[in-house]
Amino acid sequence: MSRTQCEPREGLRFFGRISASVSHEIKNVFAVINEAAGLIEDFTLMAGRGVPLQPERLKSAANSIQGQIKRGDAIVRNMNAFAHSTDEDVREVNLVEALRLAADLTARFADMRQIRLTVGESEPASMVACPFDLTRLLHSSIVAAFDSMQPGDTLAVSVSPYGGGASFSLSVPGKDAPLKNDEPFAELARAMNARVEVDEKTGTSQLLLADKGAPA
Amino acid sequence: MKVLLVDDEVELVSAMAERLGFRDVDADWTDNGESALAMAEETDYDVAVLDMKMPRLSGLELMELLADRHPDMKFIFLSGHGSEADFKAGCAAGCNYLIKPIQLEDLVALIRKVAA
């Protein structure tokens, strides 16, 4: 895959959009921890006034805090991986990991539309690519797929090797193939030597990425 | 005084409701706008505390629907964002606005203020 020549401002806008989404998620994590800690404080204050402590309530609040710390850690780990995607212009990219990262970073966008986003079984695949642009392309294509979906739908994505490049598959079980309209990311796809194929028979769309120098 | 809390973070909104109860504020909660509309048909809520960003119905959209059906209901918004757009939208709706994570005493004070 060739390095994209896209407008740098668009890349910065994408970085901002993901960062804003991640910061919102982290804010929610802090908010839940804050209330769980507040509950524990309330219980102890009431105990000071003679109300018996209920161990199961303390345990529940502690579990909530532990669960949110685990959630927050995963969010920050993804944000860290995303930030480091700008370290090198191009490198060998594990495409299964890249797809999982893009899906995780897009999960909140899916939640807001009440769409379930799942990463299906993928074949090991890797290629030389610009990690940041690849994340942007995958995010943009997944969000474009949401536009043809309804609340309650599930978008299943996976990746497999394709020629010297890769094929990212997008499908909505029980529904028509998504990505019939690739206009929202068409310019980026062209710049990255990628194209979309829609197979109505299988209800699957493929985002095909060519190996460096080869046509998609 | 009856308060309705609406936030898609269940652990957050349930804990807030319980903590408000310890402070003599009778609060029900739900994690979605559609359920909030149904609950408001059954119970007269004085104040609704709404998360700004929720799936399907945003806090502002939910406020418009609730206000249309329950003209006396007062509203407070909660947001994880400090974004200017959200803040301006919240202000246009009355400026009762807290940024998460909140101090519960601030929320209690704001509830009592808007309900007065």
UniProtKB/TrEMBL annotation, chain A:
Catalytic activity of the protein: ATP + protein L-histidine = ADP + protein N-phospho-L-histidine
Top enzyme class: transferase
Molecular function GO labels: phosphorelay sensor kinase activity
Domain of life: Bacteria
EC number in record: 2.7.13.3
Annotated Gene3D superfamilies: 1.10.287.130
Protein name (record): histidine kinase
Species whose genome carries this gene: Pseudodesulfovibrio hydrargyri
From TrEMBL, chain B:
The keyword Phosphoprotein is annotated on this UniProt entry: yes
Species annotation: Pseudodesulfovibrio hydrargyri
Record Gene3D superfamilies: 3.40.50.2300
Keyword DNA-binding applies: yes
Annotated positions of the 4-aspartylphosphate modification: 51
PANTHER family per record: PHOSPHATE REGULON TRANSCRIPTIONAL REGULATORY PROTEIN PHOB, REGULATOR OF RPOS
Record-linked Pfam families: Response_reg
Alphabetic keyword roster: DNA-binding, Phosphoprotein, Two-component regulatory system
GO-annotated biological processes: regulation of DNA-templated transcription
GO MF annotation list: phosphorelay response regulator activity; transcription cis-regulatory region binding
InterPro entries: CheY-like_superfamily, Sig_transdc_resp-reg_receiver, WalR-like
Protein name: Stage 0 sporulation protein A
Domain Response regulatory: 2-115
PROSITE patterns: RESPONSE_REGULATORY
Highest taxon above the source species: Bacteria
Cellular component terms (Gene Ontology): cytosol; protein-DNA complex
